[in-house]
Design a protein that fits this description.
The complex is a heterotrimer of chains A (291), B (98) and C (336). Chain A has 291 residues and is α/β, with parallel strands linked by helices. Chain A has helices at residues 15-20, 42-54, 75-84, 98-115, 130-134, 136-141, 153-159, 172-184, 200-213, 224-233, 237-255, 270-286, and strands at 6-11, 28-32, 62-66, 89-92, 122-127, 146-151, 188-191, 217-220, 262-263, 266-267. In chain A, 47% of the residues lie in helices and 15% in strands. In chain A, the strands form two sheets. Chain A has an eight-stranded parallel β-barrel, surrounded by six helices. Chain A has a two-stranded antiparallel sheet with strand order 9-10. Chain B is of the alpha+beta class and 98 residues long. Helix content of chain B is 34%, strand content 26%. Chain B has helices at 39-56, 73-87, and strands spanning 8-11, 18-24, 30-36, 62-68. Chain B has a four-stranded mixed sheet with strand order 1-2-4-3. In chain B, a hairpin with a 6-residue loop joins strand 1 and strand 2. Chain C folds into two domains: 5-126, Aminopeptidase (3-Layer(aba) Sandwich), CATH 3.40.630.30; 132-335, Rossmann fold, CATH 3.40.50.620. Chain C is built from eleven helices and 14 strands. In chain C, strands 1-2-3-4-5-7-6 form a seven-stranded mixed sheet, sandwiched between helices. A three-stranded parallel sheet of chain C has the order 8-9-10, covered by helices on one side. In chain C, a hairpin with a 2-residue loop joins strand 3 and strand 4 (58-64). Chain C starts with a strand and ends with a helix. Classes of the chains: A alpha/beta (291), B alpha+beta (98), C alpha/beta (336). Chains A and B meet through helix 1, helix 2 and helix 3 of A and helix 2 of B.
Amino acid sequence: MKLRRSMLFVPGSNTAMVCNAFIYKPDTVMFDLEDSVALSEKDSARLMVFHALNHFVYKDVETAVRVNPLDSPYGLLDLEAVVRAGVDIVRLPKTDTVDDVLEMQAAIEKIENEIGRTKKTKLLAAIESALGVVSAVDIARCSDRLMGIALGAEDFVRDLHTQRTKQGAELMAARSQILLAARAAKIHAFDSIFSDVKDKEGFLAEVNYIKGLGFDGKSLVNPNQISTLHEAFAPSIEDVDWAIEVTEAAKEAQEQGLGVVSLDGRMVDAPIIARAQWTLELAQASGIRRD
Amino acid sequence: MSVLKKSAYAGTLESSDAYIQVSPIEEDDIKIVLESSVKEIYGDAIEELVRETIQDMNVNNVLVNVQDKGALDFVIKARLQAAILRACEMEQPEWEVL
Amino acid sequence: MKPAISFSQFDNTNTRRVKKVEHFLDSVDLELSPDIEVYVSAREDNKMIACGGLSGNVLKCIAISPEKRGEGFVLSVMTQLLNAANDRGRKELFIFSTPKNRTFFEECGFRLIEECDEKIMLMENTQNLEKYKNSLSELKKDGEVIGSIVMNANPFTLGHRYLVESAASQSDHLHIFVVREDASEFKFEDRIALIKSGLSHIENITIHEGSDYIISKATFPTYFIKDKGDVNELHAKLDLNIYRNHLAPKLGITHRFVGTEPYCTVTNNYNKNMKNILEDKNGSSNIIKVIEIQRVEYDNKAISASRVRALLKDKNYEELSNIVPDTTFEFLTKTK
């Protein structure tokens, strides 16, 4: 299963970052053509990202692009460029309703058909408004291309008529809703960026908090944040020990032809085994492993 | 053949980038003026890349001014194409060509 | 996620923003140059962190707040300035600044023309100085005494004519540079036309249209020069060093002729500086001898262009006819 703990935000107009992002090995590189790119640079950034996506250094990295809204002069042109360049995920800038997702999907499908591309470009919906949050469940279920929903905190708190705080009380409802919706639809849930790159403690606190809530990953604005995030998301030794026991029990049961796996007198069903395997994959990716 | 309707520019002077200016000229030629810290080693290769990119876009009669700040090939291409499209006042390029 | 730093461009009619720029420049110990047409400013968290201005084809008042220096941020600011200049079709640009900033601007495609006393330097982003010098070489004439005059001639008077006649008689060939800067009452085309017609009787002269490389006081920036008393001297040094090191050698110039200046202190100072600079034995190029020629008088007063302009204003055509050649007189009375 693809790990998506870290999604590194790369402004499409920042050449140095576009060239170097892959070096830091985030789980996903997200090129932005929307808010971080000035209007006069939209066309230039689009071309930059188009070429970057086609470049060999990004062939083995999962790529995403946040495109401009379809009702702007830029959105469709962005799609033409990035779908043709083979981007893995298109991030919708602001998703309020199911229609937003379906429109984007239709537009992408049209291009894929035109160029004869069989690979289905995935979607990631960014929820940045109250309406988006209350529609989260419907949004999360409306398309099989949708691989996750993400919280866009900056715009969201503005929609709520409040401000962001370190404690994040203003985001509680949104985070819960988004997480619940994602889990109900069996897709990923992503948390928002932490913009104060100098506050390492604050960042770690937020990461631990959202990990505790159950989020799969988080958007990042600075490569420095990647290792902190990955470490925090690594399973503990106890988690790994448990996971090893479960997977060994499952292997044993299979070898003995038993229909049911048991561990310490308790039944261990498929979801638990899957989770144990995922824990081991995670441990391997994070560099923590006990042999 | 696409025609330049005006002068245009794209890119920045920041490290790893290139600042590229294009303008239409009378002569039936592609003139290139290159400024680069690696001009001695890569000057010819960069000029060749610029020339090819412009020819692939079906453009002629152009003066190109390139200030290279250590840009990779694809960066030079991206900035150059952006400048040419702006100069031709074209929104949508032919993606296959690029 | 909006970018942390935002740039804006505005012109000098936006008084509110210009004031903010002035304030920012003050915080980094610089003054606002009053002739700036277009401004570029950068803001982070609602605070100004950088600015720059364009005046004609000169970039000036480029400043970055101390916390942002050393990050290559100046390159982003310069990009914005070049964009603003490009938008107005100005691709051939100059920068006056303190020499310590030289490497920054070299990274932006500018090359040094001349530097003075570690206090001021001039740079350009083209090869135009070389091209200009090459074109000058083609006009070089042979001779032992190759004289030169730099004149504004606002307008051309009998005083100017006398100066040229004296200089020409002492030289094998005389080169006359006409200052292009249109900070005068009379437009450049008119001034040079009057010069040419007023001197048509002299054979051993070449009249050159002034270039960007003769630096008039009007374009000389002072905003980063702390000690205002320095300004005139630095202007003279920069201008005359360019003249001596770059322009004069291409024509083999050996002498420079000036009229004595009884009225204007600034010009008088300039002439004094001229002797020091052009005749300095420690200079890197050949000495140019400065010859001062006494101003010709009419009615016990030295003839000057300012006097001509005053008489013109008073419509005193009779006295006017005594101090300008016929060709100038015709022009002045025709247009009135």
